[in-house]
Amino acid sequence: MFSINHITIPEVSRGYLELYSPNQASYAKIHLSQGGSLQRLTVNGHELIKDLSPMTYEDTYASAVLFPFANRIKDGRYEFEGNTYQLDINETTLHNALHGLVYNKSFEVVREDTTVTTASVTLVYHEKNKSNGFPYTYAIYLEYILSENTLDLNVEVKNTDTNIFPFTLGWHPYFFSTDLFNSHLIFDCNKKVELDERNIVIGKSYIENITSFKIGDRFLDDCFILESKTILFITPSYILELKTTEDDCFLQLYTPPHDNTLAIEPTTGVSDSFNNGVGLKTLHPHETYKIGWTLALNNI
User: pTM for this structure?
Assistant: First the structure.
């Protein structure tokens, strides 16, 4: 049987969950007070997501679910339905609002289940306070399902407000490779998002269709418009498939100052989406939006 452990750390008011396969070759660690984020992941003996120390979660947003906006909003300001709103600026060096509003919220466990083939948990955060920058209430559910060779993250957003609201969604995992220089990505893409010096979208450009994107010694902080729902990350020790259920597919790639680590971030929109409308969605009162991301491991 798969198993689930609940760990509490009273002195820092934090807790996390551990999901294990029977032989412990697959393992997931989920921090409830850090946005319900996946902080460690081992699948079939391969360490895919690991601790990024000495970098902190506050620096990296590692594996955070990004809602109600992925990436950035320029100056934290946007207009919707004829009104102007001001989000808090948490990227002070570039004067942007960054990575949404739930990355630092505390989630609670509402369901868990173990079988001979999987362990699954469902977490929820209820936003009941209307902030000045996003004056709406909502509930966001995160379902993690761990098996011997896969990790699924299913996200469900419910509009509990009386007004329609705008949103995009993203996920911010950092993946470990034993040799990032000789790792590469495969994804279907012939368009790239052009960014200014503040990482705000200024347009798009057509590029030669990507068949193999070698990491090498590139510094990446780039966004691509995908033509398919699947991304392959090919390393010397494993092949990882990342798949989404969403038709609007954007891919943000980022190389942090941490050896052999690459952020592969699937999103439903781009930076400043609340202003440029690229990938922007709306959710009416009582409506629900669902998206799923699957990580599937293939041994070499």
Answer: 0.95
